[in-house]
Design brief:
By secondary structure, this protein is of the alpha+beta class. The chain has 14 helices and twelve strands. The longest helix is centred in the last third of the chain and has 32 residues.
Length: about 400
């Protein structure tokens, strides 16, 4: 049976939700003019977390400093965020989507997948999606895009087509026409570093990527990622719409030293190593964590530990590491010898935190690119170990 997956994505979520609140208060609709949401509207160093479509047409983007945007548009309207209100809007949006199908996976605060395979047919999917889109607009006051496909990848790609307030399809037989002409960066999971690596070899479009031999692609990005890219570029994705949660799970790593450590730089290096391991594992399993914990075991075998909550769910190594560093300074006196250090994360969710922070570190894009490169190298190392194991078995 042909799967029918919807991906529903709120258009310029933070800005749209702020606009709805302002309109309800009798103020003008900031969606109609160049406008942005930032952490502190009075601070030109603040980072833009959302931009209106008129602002985007001027080249203003999320993660830009407000000062840069003001140089482009001196009359730019800048408003602050309201997390409690955003959470309320998100819950209302998810509730309506869930009424169309209980098989729902929230992908981030402003987007979700629903499996409509038993709720509609391919020939009336656009009609149902349009009804869903219009219901959200009439009841909640903001617009969404709905992408329709036979798997999550195609539905997600379809929802990113022309915006706002649109319904698009991307079935298997439409991949060559609608998806292949797009640039490689438009393919889900392709980041800046991967794009640079591909384009440097003349691979500029998704179609060119799809036709590239798996051997050539492996040499560029590693065996494991090559397989994923090749499948996705050809429109294939068999991942299910996951409805279960996994908040009870946790990830941790620890390091015991051959001799006790007393130097802060050595202990920090160990903490960095375990943070890399933990963050890589949760990214691999598509989780973000809201709780970070750490412990140290001293040379007398006593243990000191600490736990904290992050502002938003995260899978970024630097964010997890910095929380652990802060807690270390609270539990360690800087001189007692340490024989073991550990770090863990819990309160897990599949919800993405990429666009949720109103006060995002300007270096966050660099941190995420670093994580992607770390994950790629780990995958290549795992591939190399597997190949060596297979060769050993064949020789035996």
């Amino acid at each position: 049976m042909r799967r029918i997956i919807f991906h529903i994505d709120v258009n310029s979520a933070f800005l749209s939700w702020t606009a709805v609140k302002m309109v309800n208060e009798g103020k003008s609709d900031i969606r109609m003019v160049p406008s942005v949401v930032s952490g502190d509207p009075s601070d030109r160093r603040s980072i833009i977390t959302a931009a209106s479509i008129p602002a985007k047409k001027l080249g203003i983007k999320t993660a830009q400093p407000v000062s840069m945007a003001l140089r482009v548009c001196p009359s730019l309207v800048i408003v602050g965020g309201d997390w409690a209100w955003y959470k309320e809007c998100s819950e209302g949006f998810i509730s309506i989507c869930r009424s169309y199908s209980p098989v729902l996976q929230q992908f981030s605060i402003d987007e979700c997948f629903i499996d409509m395979s038993f709720r509609c047919k391919a020939d009336n999917a656009v009609e149902v999606a349009t009804r869903l889109k219009n219901e959200i607009k009439s009841k909640l006051g903001f617009t969404v895009n709905v992408g329709i496909g036979s798997n999550k990848l195609l539905a997600k790609m379809a929802s990113d087509f022309e915006k706002p307030d649109k319904v698009h399809t991307l079935w298997e037989n439409e991949v060559e026409e609608k998806m292949w002409p797009l640039g490689v960066r438009d393919l889900l999971w392709v980041g800046k570093k991967t794009e640079e690596r591909l384009t440097s070899y003349g691979i500029n479009t998704i179609g060119q990527l799809a036709s590239l031999g798996i051997g050539s692609l492996t040499r560029l990005v590693g065996q494991k990622f090559a397989h994923q890219l090749h499948e996705n570029a050809n429109g294939r994705d068999d991942s299910p719409v996951e409805t279960e949660t996994a908040e009870a799970k946790s990830y941790s790593a620890e390091r015991t030293f051959s001799k006790d450590l007393v130097e802060a730089k050595d202990i920090d290096k160990a903490l960095f190593n375990v943070a890399c391991i933990v963050a890589h594992r949760i990214r691999r399993d598509n989780f973000r964590a809201s709780t970070v914990s750490m412990f140290v075991k001293y040379n007398d075998f006593t243990v000191a530990q600490k736990q904290c909550q992050t502002e938003q769910p995260t899978d970024v190594t630097a964010v997890i590491l910095n929380e652990a560093r802060r807690m270390l300074s609270e539990v360690w006196d800087g001189k007692t010898p340490i024989r073991q250090v550990g770090l863990g994360v819990s309160k897990l969710t599949h919800e993405s935190a990429v666009q949720m922070s109103l006060f995002e570190d300007p270096k966050m894009e660099y941190y995420r690119e670093w994580d992607m490169e770390y994950d790629r190298k780990k995958a290549e190392a795992e591939d190399a170990r597997m190949l060596a194991y297979e060769r050993k078995n064949r020789s035996e």
